[in-house]
Amino acid sequence: MIAMSSQIEIFQEMSALSARMVEAAQAHDWDQLASLEESVASLRDTLMADGTGPRLAPEQQNLKAALIQRILDDDAEIRRHTEPWMEHARQFLGDNNTRRRVQQAYGA
Questions:
Q1: What tens digit of pLDDT does each residue of 36-63 get?
Q2: Of 7, 34, 98, 106, which has the fewest Cβ atoms less than 10 A away?
Q3: CB under 8 Å, gap of 24 or more: what pairs does 58-65 form?
Q4: pTM value?
Q5: What is the DSSP letter of 57?
């Protein structure tokens, strides 16, 4: 079981990492973004493995809620930068698949 202070520390670390993920997304540094995402996922898994954990004091609950909101806000900003790139990649891959099917069908 994760101690109360450790649980908050994990959320603080996740928030710090998500802020760095925003910077990576803004810089189109996809390798760094993926690396940071793996770190966040590892921390998330640690929290999930702990289950509900100890009951937090009201001020800690407020801090936890604020950290989660910050992480969600960062996630929205990350998506704002990654979704256009992902759509471009989907179109590129779709165009290549269509081209390949046409070539196979018509022997081009």
A1: 999 999 999 999 887 766 788 999 999 9
A2: 106
A3: 60/4, 60/8, 63/8, 63/11, 64/7, 64/8, 64/11
A4: 0.76
A5: P
